[in-house]
## 1
Amino acid sequence: MNEKVILVGVETEENYRYFESSMDELRGLTKTADGEIVFILKQKRPQIDRQTILGKGKLEELKQLVIAHEADLVIFNHELSPRQAQLLAETLEVKMLDRVQLILDIFALRARSKEGKLQVELAQLEYLLPRLAGQGSQLSRLGGGIGTRGPGETKLETDRRHIRNKITQIKHELKEVAAHRLRARKQRQNKNIFQLGLIGYTNAGKSTILNILTSAQTYEQDQLFATLDPLTKKWRMPEGFEVTVTDTVGFIQDLPTQLVDAFHSTLEESKEVDMLLHVVDAHAKDRLQHEQTVADLMQQLGIIDIPILTIYNKADLIDEEQFIPTLFPNVCISAKSNKGKEDLIRAIKQQLMEQFEPYLVEVKAVDANQLYEIKRQTLVTNITFEEETQIYQVAGFAPTYHPFVRMITDQEFE
């Protein structure tokens, strides 16, 4: 049975521009976590109360609402300090979460790989550590047994020591996983495989696009954070050119710093690609805010020099004639339709041609294997066969790092 949830948000002079969209997002997050929203309490204040977020009157109203609706949980659309969490818990006498904890909970629900699970656990423990005071019996499961019965160590200190040890252990394991991921990435680079990376706001449709390009069958749902673990798949373009496409975790406004840190190695995948596909939900009410959030996080991660193609997805839900794109170059598609797939491939191809070097080579008919490799490793745009000479004239575009391009360039300088 779903938990009954009351959502709480305070609109201030600092957050008024995006307050409503942030509350809408909190609704979506709560539904994704299988919560049943029974009431939404909002308050306008110049700033949040430093002790209890809400003013005294509203806090009393919230206490009555919890009783009236028999709520199991109160979720605050703000990050609560340890002191605020303690005072609110004493007043409300009901289970409480803040926005950060809710996001962490969803990440825990979505994590599939060993790395994903470790990263979530690390973020949760680092968030919990300064908030131990006042947690009481909730932490009793962390103690007990050998090493926790010393006369000079209180329960709280034991809990802290246990969590610190666990954090150290997880960080060590994550280093090993990150090293393995780096080796795999270097291997792809050494093989001269062109890499595309999908980025974008959560629920923009990245997994859908990965699926239509590669038939990867990843989990795609109209939910926030449907994808958590990065997934790299091979995609052979219609002309034969082989590339990899990597799907990554979706961005969100006010992404908890613990998550940016914990998911750094996951988001590192985006730094090493040759071209980014930035997927934007064209139908989103706060599209511009979403675009800005992604831009800010990319800046934070140092992803600034990689070519980007913006994909405005969900075009079936908007009036395309009225739609004004803000990011360029771009393509506007509905990933669910066949036409959308064709338009997307055409736009990617166009971008590749602008980045690559053009070439024209001759291949003997007997060298069929060489022709296959050229198709696989470069973007072939035209092939003609001359009967008399038994030679293929091959025209196309190739990545600048590719030895094939270097070979052609060298020939030009001879």
## 2
Amino acid sequence: MAYVAVTGGKEAIEQSLKLLEIFRESGEDITISCIKENMGLLIDKIMSEAGFYSREYAALALKQCEGSVEEAVFLLRAYRSTLPRNYYSNPVDTSGMRLIRRISAAFKDIPGGQILGPTYDYSHRLLNFSLMEEKSQDRTEQLLKMEPGDEEISGEDIHCGRVTDLLKADGVMADVEPDDTEPFDVTCNLLTFPAPRSARLQTFARSDAGFLGGIAYSSMRGYGAVHPTVSELRCGYLEICVPYVLGEEEEICIGEILVTEVEALVPSHTETEEDFDQMTLSGGYGLIFGRNENKAIAMSIADASLETVGDTPSQDEEFVLTHGDCLEMSGFISHLKLPHYVTFQSSLDRVRAKSS
């Protein structure tokens, strides 16, 4: 594809960047702390698609690019590529998650109970006009008010066993064979097909939430073969540990990350569709940075879809894995704004030649 220089390119670009700063700074100044503390779900979305866990830098990227998710992801991935990799963390056992939310759509009563936690699922979708006059001091005073029964809350960390462990104990769910192969790193290696499952899950975790939701929606509507039941949705904090430099049998905790995890139940059929074998979790898993429930559920459905055979888009591994990256997607679309003078003139000359 041939590009030519734009007339007055350097000067025009410099003026464009100055104008961009004027647009960005035209409103009230928003601090990084304000963005980080008040736009938590947006921060989580950006960290997920960037594959970079840093609330501070995600907020900085948002401020720098006027709230554009695609640009913020671009900035974070570019910065991430400059960082050295000093350690690889040890595998994390998510059953030890310090929970803030945990529900099951498969069972009403589960050990530890349903923990609703922070969610918009049960809120009225009505505009709250009082927020237009809300001040931070008023919000702080409201949060500090003691409600009846609050004094009974212990404040202890919440840890619960898995719902799937109960199903395995009852013999209605097949055990998944442990996979000890080295995880495939999609940030360092070229993705080839068929892709290992670790590569699939990494790609899904970094995929655009809207694209992944569309793939899952198409599968559930009949353009696929998966309509699972959410065995368990968890949101909470996980400790991240690295091997101790003087002895790999020991480890050092370097911090916590907030994640959302989903396990989906997908029945496996026998020879007749009326009969069921054991349920299986071989393709129904999602784990995403932050509070990101719809994307985690969509990830579990997309993961399960690729375990089935068919000719729908959601079952096409290459289609699903190569079109969901928000950075590649937006980059390929935005390149159409670059000069295409030569290629278009060539097409125009052919049209004129045919019409003459």
## 3
Amino acid sequence: MITDALIERIVGMKNPTCVGLDTSFDYLPDEMRAGVKDFAGAAERIFDFNKTLIDRLYDVVPSVKVQIAYYEMYGVPGLKAFEETLRYAAEKGLIVIADAKRNDIGSTAACYSSAFLGETKVEGNASRAFPADFLTVNAYLGTDGIAPFVDDCKKRDRGIFVLVKTSNPSSGELQNKLLADGTLVYEYMGALVEKWGEGTEGKYGYSAVGAVVGATHPEEAARLRKLLPHTFFLIPGYGAQGGNAQMLKCCFGADGLGGVVNNSRGILCAYRKRGGTYYDAARAAALDMQRDLASVLGL
């Protein structure tokens, strides 16, 4: 079961870290950007950057999250770099999260799910377009827009992370609105996530349907942790967005399990503060994060 596999890597490495490969061309060192004039060149250098980072990190972090927007803006070559990054990370044994926040009506959602979690058939031959272990999804369209993803989770041993309480400052404009029955919108969405995951729980008690819960809103995160005992959290907001280990402790159970913490710019751009090569600085930043989280969570 894929959530069990992620948990076992976390336990084995004592590290609930997800490295966000939200790789803008502008994040690359000057020498890697030199001479590039078009999308094809930018995408090639981005993949080279990612590949080297993966080589330096796969033995100390359990997972990566690859944000598709950072690749789509470089057109078709960027999408090629996105796909190559997913595949290379998987080859290195990392748990791979495609951060694409997909959703639509049922039939279209099924196509999105095929692209990231399932397979697409062409004249009887099935292939995976953008292979990932997990996919982030937006559940605003309700159950019929989520059902195709859950079906692929069950059939193909994949997982999803549903947006519940996001880390951005204005998330409360909608997510903290009070419904007529006294429930907050993010609580109601969390309850749906817990329901959608029923029947997919693994040996650690967490289902294949997880939740995105930001580290920057600890009160709401603590509330969700109590309400969603079977829901595994993807936790953005650590580092550049202001979240720290103490703030996100509430996202985890007493055993230190229950979530994985994303850090993107703090690792990708670590060389700008630390000096040295980008890959050595990234490894050092990842190890510092591991020690920070482990000290708070007791791993």
## 4
Amino acid sequence: MSVPVRKIIHVDMDAFYASVEIRDNPALRGKPVIVGGMPGTRGVVCTCSYEARKYGVHSAMSANKAYELCPCGIFIHPRREAYTQVSKQIRRIFQDYTDLIEPLSLDEAYLDVTVNKKSIPYASRIAREIRTRIFRETGGLTASAGVSYNKFLAKTASDYHKPDGMTVILPRQADAFLGRLPIGKFYGIGKVTEKFFISMGIRNGSDLRKVSRKDLVQYFGKTGDFYYDIARGIDLREVCPHRE
């Protein structure tokens, strides 16, 4: 008896904190907004608008470095209560479709819509509806979405056409998609690991598949098993609705 293919959506808000600030203060639109610590302190960047990212600013960067790269940036203290309120609003939208929701943070979550409350047969249609409703009901905030048959591929897909995009990876498309995907675009592979892989001549998923499980485990320990599986589109993790 074959196991039914799951339908997983990963929804990720675009520059969430910065987008909420811009929504609440339209004068900030089109400007390099940086939410987090202030220059001259030991604070860090929580997130920033896409205009600020053009200067090289990114989350977890020190506020001083962000100011060095983007002196014209508008630095704003985080308003966690405001972001939490919007996050709850988005969660209510998710709950109209499924109770199998696994939040990763205030601004992203996995949804299992294999069986959903609206009996919609296509996960891609649900993802489009959710993105449309988020935009309409939150006053113009945008979300990117990835749709696939497991969590790893859904997460990878949501990052593929950011911001305000959606990517669908069907089972028959996974091998080709992963084969050409740059190694640094694989979810779970950071900058340090990316450099190590490139030094080994591994530049994309096709190259990664040529490395044996034994060798990957030798290099990376248990994480090597994860790398071996994701290169083949294998991820058996379930969406866990009890995760805080």
